[in-house]
Amino acid sequence: MIEHVLDLGNQLKKELETSKDFEVQSYKDLLIVGMGGSGVSGDVLKLVLNETTQINVEVRKAYGIPEVTAQRKPKCLFISYSGNTEETVEAVNDAIKYDLDWSVISSGGRLLELAIEHNKPFVKVPDGLQPRAAFGLMTKAVMHYVSPDIGVDYLEICNQAGNYLNEILANQSENELISQALQISKEINSKTSVIYGGTPLTYLVAQRWKTQINENAKSKAFVGYMPEVHHNEILSWEANKDGSKKDYQLLFLRSSKENSQISKRFELTKEIIGDKVDISEKFKY
Questions:
Q1: What is the reported pTM?
Q2: What pLDDT, in 10s, does the model give residues 171-210?
Q3: Measured torsion, CA atoms of residues 97, 118, 54, 132, in degrees rounded to the nearest 10
Q4: 34, 57, 95, 170: most buried, per Cβ within 10 A?
């Protein structure tokens, strides 16, 4: 898996195959459907659109499309690396039933077959990977579907990000990011990870970390969103039967753009439970 992580820059720079005469029309309402490692790329697109537009974006990670959602007539984007994810295939069939405008991202499978059959736009990513190992490819793929009226070339931004990642990862033996990642993995070790973010970006990263820990390390991990954790979850840390808090590693994902009150809440959390729970706070976004 590590080789795929280190290949992230090249994945972001990869030119992807699209349907003939590929074109995306402007839209104001977008429904994205995808599961697991495929669905996270939908979260990335939602974050980008939420930060830069007034477009209504919903990411659905379940079977089908509810009728009340279909009545809005959203543009639909279906994402499945394999193309055979049953929840997503069912959603495509609902889009056909409700006569919605839809597109596909896949490496093949039933989704691509349906897109070709119904003459719908698609982006085809290279196959042969685990979905969780194709994050760069899927991120590049969803950027094809940014509404054109935004006026920003996100495909070129992906290329620039790929160049940047390749540059900072060029020397693995001296790379600070890799050293930090290894240090955090040692701190987590066999513990259960609890990851807190305090902005939309850091919370998205927290969710990504969770799924990678679940799937790659085969370990339990959970996420929380500050300040919501201070309204409920913080009380759960009072339980410490037989010193059980030592079974957890708490990770803070911080951002220079977080609200000043969020910063205070992170510091307060360390004061409240830092003597009982190991806290890692090495990454700032």
A1: 0.91
A2: 766 677 778 888 888 888 889 999 999 999 999 999 999 9
A3: 100
A4: 34
